[in-house]
Design goal:
The protein has 10 helices and 10 strands. The protein is of the alpha/beta class. It starts with a strand and ends with a strand.
């Protein structure tokens, strides 16, 4: 049967993608950021996942204000990099895993989660930057990818509890799939940051470090954190952290933390990254 072997969480800062694409990863500003992913690149090269189930938020590339699903799963064969206003990133087309994606969609919807099914769409930096951080710059991505999009842009976003419970439903779905697949689940976005208004540039390292501790050791408590706490403490874009709870919910209660990295600043955000191995 298919199995979820590990979870990864990482920020998906768009400027990181630009630094990679423009060959600036060794610049003084960016070098400490990319140093935090050297372990991760070595680790994932050894793990060789067959499929990455990647949770991220669209940034007006696949959706607009006309249509905003709370959760959407992409079940297509392939997804091209989106043009976010300055041309598509020069990265490979993402290859999907339709058989597993459709199985998860059916299982999760029957488990009382309403998912929008996407058969065609482009994917933006929310998905491609995490792939670049973990895999570098290959000619083709070394695994299949199932995108799951979460609305954390337009009010109201789903609660942390809803995202956490969705992760548990995804785990049940993967476990019931017959093919022998090594599946990883990734949660992306965050950490504390705000991009506009009087608090633009907000970074709350105390909140971020507490979040990382709770994510590892007490995710049930973390899932109950209300939206207002994210907004007050982590900034308007800090709500992206609920997507990490989808990853955590799909893992076992007890996990091994293989890697933790935190860096400030990465553009105008706090960058966080963890790798958990299922026990």
């Amino acid at each position: 049967m298919a199995r979820i072997t590990a979870g990864v969480a990482t920020s998906h800062v768009p400027a990181i993608g630009a630094a990679i694409d423009l060959g600036k990863t060794a610049d003084d500003y960016w070098k400490p950021v990319f140093a935090g992913y050297e372990f991760s690149k070595d680790w994932i090269a050894r793990e060789k996942p067959d499929v990455v189930f990647l949770v991220y938020n669209d940034h007006a590339s696949a959706f607009s204000l006309k249509t905003i699903p709370t959760f959407a799963i992409a079940c297509g064969e392939a997804f091209k990099p989106a043009d976010e206003g300055w041309g598509p990133r020069p990265v490979p087309t993402v290859k999907g895993c339709p058989d597993l994606a459709w199985h998860i969609a059916q299982s999760v919807i029957q488990d009382d989660f309403d998912l929008t099914v996407m058969n065609e769409m482009d994917v933006d930096h929310g998905l491609t930057v995490p792939l670049s951080l973990m895999f570098g710059q290959p000619e083709a991505w070394p695994c299949l990818v199932i995108p799951l999009l979460v609305n954390v842009v337009v009010y109201p976003p789903p609660s942390g509890q809803r995202c956490y419970d969705l992760g548990k439903a995804i785990a049940r779905a993967v476990k019931s799939f017959d093919d022998d697949l090594n599946v990883q689940i990734w949660g992306t976005g965050g950490m504390s940051h705000q991009l506009q208004g009087p608090r633009a540039g907000l970074i709350n390292t105390e909140f971020d470090h507490e979040y990382l501790e709770l994510l590892l050791n007490d995710p049930d408590r973390l899932a109950r954190k209300p939206h207002i706490d994210y907004l007050r403490e982590a900034g308007s874009e800090g709500i992206e952290l609920v997507m990490w709870l989808t990853m955590r919910g799909a893992l076992n209660a007890n996990v091994n933390e293989l890697h933790r990295f935190y860096h400030v600043p990465a553009s105008n955000t706090a960058l966080g990254h963890v790798i958990y191995q299922n026990t």
